[in-house]
Amino acid sequence: MEFKQVVGRRRSIRYYQPYRPVEREKVQVVLEAARLSSRAVNADFVQAIVVNRDDLAEENRESLKTPTTTAQLDLAPVWIFWLIDPTAPKVGQTSLKKLVDVGALTPSHGWSHAYVDNVVWPQVLQPILADPGTAAVVAAVEAGLAINQALLAAVDEGLGTQLTALNAASAKQILGIPDHLVPIWIQLLGYPAEDPDAGGQRPRSPFEHIYFEGRYGRPFERDQTVVERLRADGMLTGDAPHPWRKEEVRALSRMFGLPE
Amino acid sequence: MAEQVAESLERLAGQSTVIAWLKAYDAHWDVRQSDGETRAKLEILARFCLVCEREPDDLVAWLFRQTEEGPRIRLKRRRLVMALIDDFEREHGGRSAGNVVRSFLIHNGVALSATPLR
Asked: What is the pTM (predicted TM-score) of this model?
């Protein structure tokens, strides 16, 4: 699938074919995509545990649910638990020097082993590690970059996917997650039971309300010819809701015995 | 039980959470439920109220606590009610009956669902 189509087709899918397994190779593709995301200091800010829904005892499945994370967990056959590691920059002194060695960080931009040892490590990375709040923000951003690639890879593989909340304490206990890692999201994988368009592209704030040019508050003007090109390329699709969406949701609810 | 249910229908229909539920349901799904559909739902809700020994307004109020930031759901009580609904649907009309009760709670701001049938 073309990149713009992947972006345009991604939806949070909440109804899955519960009986249809996800091919293991597709799960691997999703993980491979996350592994290649942009990341600060080339550190592993995010790790993941893949769990097959049916390998979890019912009581464990129930304990992982939150008030708004319920039926979709029962429907999706594969769950990826994404874990963030706020301590990841601890490898920075070594990992940055490796980036210098492979030509990613270059002397023409001021990078050297000495700069890493004398400046970046003591003046940037150690202070981040010493401040849990900052470390958590950095880790969350870096994890988000990786998880987004995982979402897009799932779409590219023809899967439905969604990030969903979880009971982190239960996840830690059930899956044996070390203390320094924070379960942040479950990414669900499965084949959609709903139309993959899931009612259409979600409402967004107007482009000019959130993107600026030159200074804050001066809108970046949206060129309609670009908009039309993106429509033609499949990145901008029909806005939600499609006229039949409510009927679709009611039919799905009745099919799965879910409340209306 | 049937007599008790019949007696309570009018009273239930006047409760604010029931009015809110029926109104929100129609608005969300773009439908207008017939008197017969509404009555059938109220009968189910009345049966559940007998089982849990709470009137609808009381049940919803019992599931929230008031805080300075606004109402907060009581999670343990929510879990208890979810289990009660599971028991109720086993003994009183199956999943569709349980979902009437769930719908009542959902449209009154109590987020819950059911285990999908699969």
From this structure: 0.93
